[in-house]
Design brief:
The complex is a heterodimer of chains A (257) and B (326).
Chain A lengths: L1 H19 L1 H22 L14 H31 L1 H6 L5 H29 L7 H30 L2 H5 L2 H9 L14 H7 L1 H14 L4 H32 L1
Chain B lengths: L3 E10 L3 E11 L4 E5 L6 H8 L7 E6 L2 E2 L4 H7 E4 L11 H11 L4 H14 L15 H12 L6 E5 L7 H16 L3 E6 L2 H7 L2 E6 L2 E6 L1 H8 L3 E6 L4 H8 L3 E7 L2 E6 L6 H10 L4 E7 L3 H9 L7 H14 L1
Parallel strand pairs in B: 3-8, 3-9, 6-7, 7-8
Antiparallel strand pairs in B: 1-2, 1-4, 4-5, 9-10, 11-13, 11-14, 12-13
Helix pairs in contact in B: 3-4, 3-5, 6-12, 8-11
The chains are: A mainly alpha (257), B alpha/beta (326).
């Protein structure tokens, strides 16, 4: 029972930490919002391209990519914050307490999940304000928040694993550009059928594409079970990978001392 | 049952670096035990093993009667830990930190808040309780760290270099709080590189060098072990040979130093008056006379062959602070 309390308390600390440190918050909300504005404003006529999916507007298409970009960066920020905890010795304070070792990671992921939910709501509000339609309706919006929250946990797990393995905030921060490489090699910002090879083949198998498409489908069309569950399956895979990797990294750190 | 007991405790890091090379300790309850040694001697590694943060690679350790490897969770419940350099989140407030610490120790929320209030008051941080830790001075951080280590009322308190880098007044305030905690029944294990700290605070001192315990005992016993006090006499007329001849009747002569004749007094301080009388009867005019007690630094030199780094600074600074306060 206390483990849940500890996870909640550490999650709350993680959220406060993000809001109190602008350099952690900026990549989660401000950068993806700016990029979204630039892309929608500058490349809005992409919807006129032949074979572009049927959408009400370019914003409808782009909003899913912005959400997943934000959760990837939330995972990266969570990793940086965890690495800073290790560097300053705060993690030792937690390890010297009678709590489950993995609660330390889960607490961080709970905070990242909350930030994921926040980004989903933020971009849904932006989408609605600027005239996008959520074709999936209220239920669709709820599922979007759920998928985005889960993706934050999955990406947060990978960020946490790198932080625990390296113990260095600069190493985790150094992965920031990689986030954009992974994003541009998926369907986050452009439909797969309009990508050139070899980007097209990479995007076809990039798990991120399945997650983005799962979210996008709820924005641009009514609920499709196949698309949704493909997204869920990709998320489950990445979630297991991320959380499993962070559990292994924690065990390794404890072994090394 | 000893509060802390180790047998041949060892830690070898990857690459074959030996940080602790077989240490035996027996620390009874309600004692303040100071682990004295220079940087890199193995002090922090010992603390990390005893607080379950690091697994020993050899030997065994029991804290509060519990094995640090097999019963690590129980050990963590029994101990309070304030680690080197006050591992505090600068973005949290003092109150948030102690309430979080209370949650980690499974205290109910209301009780955690009450204890936070009481502990912040105890360490003089009530007025700064809702300020972020990043705005605290070094001394305030240390006091907050100490308060957070006490939230669950531990039986044994581990303090890793609790006053390193602090100004003399802050150092004195930490010493007073540690002494008070000990009087209330808490066993304290502290590491330090300050001789004065070990001398003033500790019931017993362990000197660690290169991962090995080279001496252990009460500060007085350790000092007595290396010799009696010695007398340093400077004459105004410079007749040193004659002075040394007279002084040798009262104890073992020591090599002259800076123009002073030295003798180790067989009867300790009681031997001063007869020496003065004998010098006077011989018509020698004494310019200055010092009875020098052995210090822990002398003990350290005798046991390790070198002086403990930084031993002079803090003593002098704290003396000034104490004088300033009085």
């Amino acid at each position: 029972m206390n483990t849940l309390r500890v996870i909640g308390a550490l999650g709350l600390r993680s959220i406060k930490q993000t809001f109190r440190r602008p350099q952690l918050l900026a990549p989660i909300l401000i950068f993806p919002t700016l990029l979204l504005a630039i892309q929608v404003g500058g490349a809005g006529r992409a919807v006129d391209l032949p074979q572009f999916p049927e959408v009400n507007g370019f914003l409808d298409f782009m909003i899913a990519g912005a959400m997943i970009q934000a959760t990837l960066l939330a995972g990266n920020s969570g990793g940086i914050a965890l690495a800073l905890d290790i560097e300053m010795g705060f993690t030792d304070r937690l390890l010297a307490a009678p709590i489950s070792r993995f609660a330390i990671v889960l607490g961080r992921l709970a905070g990242t999940a909350a930030l994921g939910a926040l980004t989903a709501i933020w971009f849904l509000v932006i989408a609605l304000i600027f005239g996008a339609h959520i074709e999936g309706g209220v239920a669709g919006a709820f599922l979007i928040v759920l998928l985005v929250t889960c993706s934050a946990v999955a990406f947060g797990g990978i960020g946490a694993a790198i932080a625990l393995r390296s113990g260095s905030a600069s190493v985790v921060q150094g992965l920031f550009p990689l986030v954009f490489v992974i994003l541009f090699l998926s369907t986050a910002f452009f439909p797969e059928n309009l990508l050139l090879e070899p980007a097209r083949s990479v995007a076809e198998w990039n798990p991120l594409s399945f997650i983005v498409d799962g979210v996008r489908d709820l924005v641009i069309s009514t609920f499709s079970a196949a698309q949704f569950f493909e997204g869920v399956a990709a998320l489950a895979l990445m979630g297991l990978f991320g959380v499993g990797l962070s559990a292994a990294a924690m065990r390794g750190r404890l072994r090394r001392g | 049952m000893p509060a802390i007991e180790t047998r041949d405790l060892q830690r070898v890091f990857s690459g074959g670096i030996t940080a602790v090379a077989g240490v035996d300790l027996q620390i009874p309850e309600r004692e303040i035990y100071a682990f004295l040694g220079p940087n890199g001697a193995g002090k922090t590694t010992m603390v990390r093993m005893l607080t379950t943060l690091l697994r020993p690679t050899g030997g065994s350790a029991r804290v509060a009667g519990l094995d640090v490897v097999e019963e690590a969770g129980e050990v963590r419940r029994a101990i309070g830990v304030a680690l080197q350099e006050a591992a505090l989140d600068p973005l949290m407030t003092g109150r948030e930190l102690i309430v979080l610490q209370a949650t980690l120790h499974a205290l109910p929320r209301g009780e955690g808040e009450r204890r936070a209030e009481r502990l912040l008051d105890r360490v003089g941080l009530s007025s700064a309780a809702d300020r972020r830790v990043g705005t605290y001075s070094g001394g305030m951080r240390r006091r907050l760290d100490l308060a957070s280590a006490l939230v669950h009322e531990p039986q044994i308190l581990f303090l890793d270099e609790p006053t390193t880098g602090l100004d003399p007044v802050s150092r004195k305030s930490i010493w007073e709080e540690v002494s008070k905690l000990n009087r209330e029944g808490t066993t304290v294990f502290l590491t330090t590189q300050y001789l004065e700290e070990a001398d003033k605070l500790a019931d017993r001192v362990g000197i660690i060098d290169d991962g090995r315990l080279v001496a252990e005992g009460t500060p007085d016993a350790l000092k007595a072990e290396i010799g009696r006090p010695h007398l340093e006499v400077v004459l105004s007329d410079g007749r040193m040979d004659r002075a040394e001849e007279i002084m040798s009747r009262f104890g073992k002569p020591l090599p002259a130093k800076d123009g002073a004749a030295l003798v180790e007094l067989e009867r300790g301080a009681a031997g001063v008056a007869p020496v003065v009388r004998a010098l006077d009867e011989a018509g020698l005019v004494v310019e200055s006379l010092d009875l020098v007690q052995p210090t822990l630094d002398d003990v350290f030199v005798a046991k390790t062959g070198y002086h403990l780094e930084g031993s002079e600074g803090p003593e002098a600074e704290v003396d000034q602070a104490v004088e300033g306060d009085s």
